Amino acid sequence: MSIIVAVDIGGTQIRAATYTLGNTKALKVTKIPTKSSDSQPYDRVVRAIASIWPASESVSCITAAIPGPLDPETGIVISAPNIPGWEHFPLAQKLQERFSVPVYLGNDANMAAMGEWRFGAGQGHKHVLYFTISTGIGGGVIADNQLLTGWRGLATELGHVILEPDGPLCGCGKRGHFEALASGTAIARYVNEQLAAGVNSQLKPSPSLGARQVADAAREGDTLAIEAFARAGKYIGLALANYVVTFNPSIVIFGGGVSFSGDLLFAPMRTALKENVMDLAYIDGLEITTAQLGDDAGLLGALALGIYKTKHDN
Ligand SMILES: [Zn+2]
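That is the input. Now the predicted structure with zinc ion docked in place:
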């Protein structure tokens, strides 16, 4: 029996699990904090993998979801803003030397897209557009039953297209990106700006204000909170109007905490999409739904990548 070791590396925690090829139920799972005073993130990844390594069965590969851009050919992590020291970090090579099996990496949003496509909301679709909207915005595209990766593996940074050239500053340092206008961080920032300008609301200005509190206030009828979600929803609709003409998906899947705000976000999104899309043919019959795999999306996406590599590389 051949085993795939899937790892989901986040800024807060590392999760690792072992799977057989035909089963999405993990044989063994472990979860440890990414950061610790006594060891580096890389050593903690090694520790997590070693703790679930099978005693007798052979491992066909290790696959890992990474929180940042990477080169899938060389397995070098280009940057991972939440993991200190991982700039041009040769993660795949180091793990390969340590465990003597092939190692494949994918960025976390792409892995979540793979997971939802293979095992979640996107099953049966050949053309899938996936977004994760939380503190930032990430995405992944399945085009004709293939994960779209681009020349250098850097494709589908869907949160960093420009929607307002002179708009607010994005986490990446440029202005007016989708993420800077519609992420949870952007929703909270907009509310804080409006409060500072004297707009009336039950919310109080605070650096720790989050999209969840804004959503709660919106459900209680707070006008500013409702407007903040309507604004983000409008930008999501605008972004979608660009993406459906680019990728022509049959399903759009939204994951990440902010996606579960329901119609607060999705009603204005649908209106903006309809008003701005080039032709209604792109959205006639288009399924728009929320993700199904929750916290497991990264791990199951890594599993999907492992299954694909096991079948195609041997
Ligand atoms: Zn950006």
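The first helix runs from residue 41 to 52.
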